[in-house]
Amino acid sequence: MPEKERADLPRRELTVGEVAARSGVAVSTLHFYETKGLIKSMRSRGNQRRYPRSVLRRIAVIKIAQRTGIPLADIQKELSALPNDRQLLASDWAHLSEHWKADLNERINKLTALRDQLTSCIGCGCLSMRDCPLRNPYDTLSEKGAGAYLIEHAGEELD
Amino acid sequence: MPEKERADLPRRELTVGEVAARSGVAVSTLHFYETKGLIKSMRSRGNQRRYPRSVLRRIAVIKIAQRTGIPLADIQKELSALPNDRQLLASDWAHLSEHWKADLNERINKLTALRDQLTSCIGCGCLSMRDCPLRNPYDTLSEKGAGAYLIEHAGEELD
DNA sequence: TATTGACCTCAAGTTTAGTTGAGGTTCTAT
DNA sequence: ATAGAACCTCAACTAAACTTGAGGTCAATA
After folding, report:
1. What is the model's pTM?
2. Which nucleotide is nearest to A49 (CA to C1')?
3. Whose CB among A13, A78, A159, B76 lies 3.0–4.6 Å from B56's, allowing a Cys bridge?
4. Confidence at residue B108, expressed as pLDDT on a 0 to 100 scale
5. Distance between the two ends of chain A, CA-based, in angstroms?
6. Which of A3, A63, A4, A2 has its CA nearest to residue A29?
């Protein structure tokens, strides 16, 4: 039989299982996040993890950041850079989300540019090293020096 | 001393090193792609890889697909599904890129939705499990049955 | 009290996309 | 002919983000 309903013990600390159920992440993931310093726990007498309810908000923030494509290591850095590593406040959230939004915007812009190039190249199919924007993303030409590159490859059209 | 310039032997097959230089991927990556069935090679008498020039186009297509976020395994499947696994034609390219564009569009839409939610939630910071769209992406509610979920969590606002 | 579900640690495995290294061979210019 | 660049194979390593499993403990309930 499942664990007894605990709604009648208000504001208790949460067990891993409860946090897992409420946050939607696996217990093993909570362990993992702990080893990575993303979340913390207190321990019960019997060495079991106990969490304050604020961990749920923290996990929510972690998952949102992940959805935007931020690696866990970076998330950890930003979270631990907060004063005292304290409970997340609305102002922290504003700060973090502003930052992540900028990041996300950049990714969206890159993908959108790619889509537009793709759109204009469909049906063309040239994929010419010289002429096709898909094959020459702006940041590739400069890597070896555009001049040398273009000269080196001048006239190669049969690939 | 570096290898002699071979421009005077036109239309020769290419060595790995040449393909690497011209495509911008490492030799080890070309080996790797070969083990994954993404590209193929002929061998010289001495067992060295030799590539037709068409491999460059194939690699270009692979890299574009990767930029859109398609995993290599999927790229491999789509490339090998082409009739005879032959050289890529413009029509193949049109087909593939159309497909990938749709994929890319979906990813862009998801990220854009996330950004918009982020924008509207900055400064709010509620992250309420009930009310915040960031914490309840549409596809989460239905996972366990929205009804049960909402009832189970009703009244929990202190996280 | 005894069962059983939930929990613990630590090590190892998984996937994706490659890179690195050891030990040995081939190729090409001199 | 020979040096040295380029190539070969195969195994092992990397990184991120987890999951799985073994072996054992804790806690709530019948």
Report:
1. 0.78
2. C7
3. A159
4. 94
5. 67
6. A63
